[in-house]
Amino acid sequence: MARSLQLYDELARQLAWSRDTIVLYGKPVQIPRLQAWYGDNGLDYTYSGLTLTARPWLPLLAELKHMVEVKSGVRFNAVLANLYRDGNDTVGWHSDDEPELGENPVIVSLSFGGERNFNFKHKMSGEKLTIPLKSGSLLIMAGETQRCWQHCVPRTKKAKLPRISLTFRQIKS
């Protein structure tokens, strides 16, 4: 736990955080969290009308990417980092189903800092599942997860500490 909190501090300091604007129901909306996009050769990633161009890998991110690749058996070429500053920062219900992720993408999320709930909701049945992600947690979304389920990090008053999630992805060219 101590190492994951140390990594939180390093990531919070080293990453180039920004608060971007997306298009939601035809209107520009500021994202309710900070984010940073890193990857190979300036890879672009587009969602909700926002295109991010990857910054080069930082040594710490490259080290974490290697660890995630060993654990998951999957190679990644990009990471979307999210910083939830408090319980008001959130990400709403969505699926990571952008064309550049390919069919049935594998996305691995690595969490640092405060604990937050990660919720799933089945697209057809509405079944819900909540997974509390503590500092150091590794979550793998694979197979038909993005096709069949949505996920979110809900707003909460219980969040005591900020949280960083690193979501490793394979962008198809």
UniProtKB/TrEMBL annotation:
<keyword id="KW-0223">Dioxygenase</keyword>
<keyword id="KW-0560">Oxidoreductase</keyword>
<dbReference type="GO" id="GO:0006307">
    <property type="term" value="P:DNA alkylation repair"/>
</dbReference>
<keyword id="KW-0479">Metal-binding</keyword>
<keyword id="KW-0408">Iron</keyword>
<keyword id="KW-0234">DNA repair</keyword>
<keyword id="KW-0227">DNA damage</keyword>
<dbReference type="InterPro" id="IPR037151">
    <property type="entry name" value="AlkB-like_sf"/>
</dbReference>
<feature type="domain" description="Fe2OG dioxygenase">
    <location>
        <begin position="75"/>
        <end position="172"/>
    </location>
</feature>
<dbReference type="InterPro" id="IPR027450">
    <property type="entry name" value="AlkB-like"/>
</dbReference>
<dbReference type="InterPro" id="IPR032854">
    <property type="entry name" value="ALKBH3"/>
</dbReference>
<dbReference type="GO" id="GO:0016787">
    <property type="term" value="F:hydrolase activity"/>
</dbReference>
<dbReference type="GO" id="GO:0016705">
    <property type="term" value="F:oxidoreductase activity, acting on paired donors, with incorporation or reduction of molecular oxygen"/>
</dbReference>
<dbReference type="GO" id="GO:0140097">
    <property type="term" value="F:catalytic activity, acting on DNA"/>
</dbReference>
<dbReference type="InterPro" id="IPR005123">
    <property type="entry name" value="Oxoglu/Fe-dep_dioxygenase_dom"/>
</dbReference>
<keyword id="KW-0460">Magnesium</keyword>
<dbReference type="GO" id="GO:0046872">
    <property type="term" value="F:metal ion binding"/>
</dbReference>
<protein>
    <submittedName>
        <fullName>Alpha-ketoglutarate-dependent dioxygenase AlkB</fullName>
    </submittedName>
</protein>
<dbReference type="Pfam" id="PF13532">
    <property type="entry name" value="2OG-FeII_Oxy_2"/>
</dbReference>
<dbReference type="GO" id="GO:0051213">
    <property type="term" value="F:dioxygenase activity"/>
</dbReference>
<dbReference type="GO" id="GO:0032451">
    <property type="term" value="F:demethylase activity"/>
</dbReference>
